[in-house]
Amino acid sequence: MSVQETEPSDGPVFSLAHLTLINCTPAELVYIAARAGYDAVSPRFIAMNVPGEFIDSPLDRAQVQAIRTALATTGLEVLDIELARITEDCDPRGFEAALELGGELGARHMIMSAWTTRRDDRNFLLDVYGETCDLAAPYGLTIDLEFPSFSRLRRNLAENRQRDPSPIR
């Protein structure tokens, strides 16, 4: 495995998120993003089992080769990878194959959000988030939390942190 070191860009990087074109393979996403003028892509390597999602695993050897070829052909980069969900039965080790591939492709981040039925379970969320951060570090990735309006969180972790400023990790 090789982790690509990336320098911060001088300006914004525009990345096409895989959810925008959920029925595309990661390689198809790269080619479409290049034709549309994007700088990068944010492929989904973790199944969410939503309608229209990929049939063949993006971690399949042929799919990985196809995205490598697409990136080399177009010159686009992988900004981040989608989407690690925190659920009640979440085991962060299940994200490791996606983290490894993301690191190999030069991704800088993995997007994570909470999809628990129990609201504001701060300790559980922090434990899963922290363990995922630990797993991501050797691959050169950070874990970026997103707080979609439809998630089960009533308050984000930053608001909870104001009430309890104990260190996260």
List the topology elements.
Blueprint: E1 15-17, H1 26-36, E2 40-42, H2 61-74, E3 77-78, E4 80-86, H3 96-104, E5 109-114, H4 122-136, E6 142-145, H5 157-163
Parallel strand pairs: 1-2, 2-3, 4-5, 5-6
Helix pairs in contact: 1-2
Structure, explained:
This protein is α/β, with parallel strands linked by helices and 169 residues long. The chain has 2 domains: 12-78, no CATH class; 81-169, no CATH class. Helices cover 33% and strands 15% of the residues. The protein is built from 5 helices and 6 strands, in the order E-H-E-H-E-E-H-E-H-E-H. The protein has helices spanning 26-36, 61-74, 96-104, 122-136, 157-163; strands at 15-17, 40-42, 77-78, 80-86, 109-114, 142-145. The strands form 2 sheets. The chain has a 3-stranded parallel sheet with strand order 1-2-3, covered by helices on one side. The protein has a 3-stranded parallel sheet with strand order 4-5-6, covered by helices on one side. Helix 1 packs parallel to helix 2 (61-74). It is globular. The model is unreliable at 1-6 (pLDDT under 50).
